[in-house]
């Protein structure tokens, strides 16, 4: 642990009765900004903005990452005044290590840290910051974090516009809030433009070992020029969760109607994606939860709720709370995991029964490394009595790889477009997809 450097005077922030005076500023690393020195604060942000302007595509790669550390004091209870300085060293150094180049951060208040990245595309920076939040949580609290999870929310943020002419921290926070409201409104308009044409389709899920169609993955989208396009592909820049939550609600409502009207649907499993942010963010949570509460009773026997954006490194306590929230509405839960850091032990004692690794990005870069990590995940999942499914591999060669690694279930574009209605439970006529047998012939409507 790095000791803090010499501290100049700044307004104390105590927050604890009887505790020693505690100061958030000056920052504990060189990347930190000090809002109690407004001249230096504005100068460093302006320098970041000018350096960002020199990048080849500056408007595509700026982002602000909002770290929520408000739950950390609860983890330490009465010991918080004694350990607070050490904890803040870990927090600030953890954020600083995740930054690169001339990137900066500022402690906005005792519960929030704002970090700015300039180089990578915002989606890449988002993944890096989620891993950083997981590492910080693990260092502070271990895998069983007791509700003290450090979380992070990423917004694409135009540094050229958002950082110009800033004077103080308050103005910076107002600028970020303004960007967030504009993004919410943009996503709401994007969904409204699709609402009338939106429909639900069903991609068959195959159990590779027995060659059975055991269920279907619900896919929301629209038909354009004879092609079915998933809704997410029509709003690629979604960032604040508004569009995803509205699509999640549509999926849940459509599946509920299907279960009430179709005996065929009541005989198989239906896997329905629900985004993590849709059920934890205050702005969208009640909308999606209300749709879940209206599901028919058959949903508890047929639905698997899939969290495609489950944060990597979310500790066991966080998974327990999340699954407890969703478990009453479904037979089981599924969650995405990162191949390089799946940590299936986090799911022990929860209703999460299916792990869904993100395979496609690594498979494009390194087939051999993908096979090694995937086979390792399958073995680890078996020890935790979990099953493994892959949904993002779209070609025959990739399907052959996941079959050889022992994956339990697949759903893939290689079998054709999603279907307008679920299939009957059936055994495939031939062997599992391979390089020599076209995958598209394996499933017929």
Describe the structure.
- The protein is an alpha/beta fold and 445 residues long.
- Helix content is 39%, strand content 18%.
- A hairpin with a 2-residue loop joins strand 2 and strand 3 (112-117).
* Count of alpha/pi helices: 14
Q: Give a short account of the largest sheet.
A: 8 strands, mixed, barrel
Order of helices and strands: HEHHEEHEHHEEEHEHHHEHEEHHEHE
In terms of quaternary structure, what is this? single chain
**How large is the radius of gyration?**
24 Å
Distance between the termini: 60 Å
- Secondary-structure-based class equals alpha/beta
Topology, number of strands: 13
Strand order, sheet with most strands: 5-6-8-9-10-11-12-13
Instruction: Kindly state the percentage of residues in helix.
Output: 25-40%
Strand content is: 15-25%
pLDDT average, as an integer? 84
Q: Which stretches are poorly predicted, pLDDT < 50 over at least 5 residues?
A: 1-12, 430-445
- Principal-axes shape call: globular
Question: Notable features of this structure?
Answer:
445 residues, eight-stranded mixed beta barrel, 39% helix, disordered N terminus
Note the topology:
Layout lengths: L37 H16 L9 E6 L3 H5 L3 H18 L6 E6 L2 E6 L4 H20 L9 E6 L2 H4 L6 H26 L4 E9 L4 E13 L2 E4 L11 H20 L7 E5 L2 H5 L1 H12 L5 H4 E5 L8 H11 L5 E7 L13 E7 L1 H6 L1 H17 L3 E4 L5 H9 L4 E2 L35
Parallel strand pairs: 6-8, 8-9, 9-10, 10-11, 11-12, 12-13
Antiparallel strand pairs: 1-3, 1-4, 2-3, 5-6, 5-13, 6-7
Short characterization:
By secondary structure, the protein is α/β, with parallel strands linked by helices. It is built from 14 helices and 13 strands.
């Amino acid at each position: 642990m790095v000791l803090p450097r010499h501290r100049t005077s700044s307004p104390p922030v105590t927050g604890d009765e009887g505790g020693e005076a505690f100061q958030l500023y000056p920052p504990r690393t060189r990347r930190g900004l000090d809002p109690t020195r407004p001249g230096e604060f504005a100068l460093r942000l302006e320098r970041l903005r000018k350096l960002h302007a020199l990048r080849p595509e500056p408007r595509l790669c700026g982002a602000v990452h909002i770290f929520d550390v408000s739950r950390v004091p609860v983890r330490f209870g009465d010991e918080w005044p004694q350990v607070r300085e050490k904890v803040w060293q870990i927090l600030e150094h953890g954020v600083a290590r995740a930054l690169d180049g001339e990137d900066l951060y500022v402690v906005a208040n005792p519960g929030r840290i704002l970090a700015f990245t300039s180089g990578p595309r915002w989606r890449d920076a988002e993944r890096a910051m989620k891993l950083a939040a997981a590492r910080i949580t693990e260092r502070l609290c271990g895998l069983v974090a007791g509700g003290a999870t450090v979380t992070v929310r990423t917004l694409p943020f135009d540094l050229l516009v958002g950082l110009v002419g800033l004077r103080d921290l308050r103005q910076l926070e107002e600028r970020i809030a303004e960007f967030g409201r504009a993004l919410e409104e943009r996503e709401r308009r994007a969904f409204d433009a699709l609402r009338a044409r939106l429909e639900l389709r069903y991609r068959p899920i195959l159990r590779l070992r027995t060659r059975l169609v055991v269920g279907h993955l619900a896919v929301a989208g629209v038909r354009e020029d004879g092609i079915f396009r998933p809704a997410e592909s029509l709003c690629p820049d979604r960032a604040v969760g508004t569009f995803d939550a509205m699509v999640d609600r549509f999926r849940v409502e459509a599946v509920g109607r299907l279960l009430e009207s179709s005996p065929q649907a009541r005989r198989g499993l239906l896997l329905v994606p629900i985004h993590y942010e849709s059920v934890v963010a205050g702005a969208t949570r009640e909308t999606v939860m209300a749709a879940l509460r209206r599901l028919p009773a058959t949903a508890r026997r047929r639905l698997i709720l899939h969290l495609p954006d489950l944060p990597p490194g979310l500790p066991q306590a966080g998974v327990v709370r999340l699954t407890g929230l969703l478990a009453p509405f479904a037979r089981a839960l599924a969650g995405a995991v990162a191949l390089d850091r799946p940590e299936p032990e986090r799911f022990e004692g929860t209703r999460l029964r299916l792990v869904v690794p993100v395979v496609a990005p690594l498979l494009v870069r390194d087939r051999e490394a993908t096979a090694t990590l995937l086979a390792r995940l399958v073995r680890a999942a078996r020890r935790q009595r979990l099953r493994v499914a892959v949904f993002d591999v779209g070609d025959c060669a990739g399907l052959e790889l996941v079959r050889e690694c022992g994956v339990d279930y697949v759903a893939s574009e290689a079998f054709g477009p999603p279907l307008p209605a679920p299939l009957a439970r059936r055994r495939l006529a031939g062997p599992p997809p391979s390089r020599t047998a076209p995958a598209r012939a394996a499933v017929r409507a």
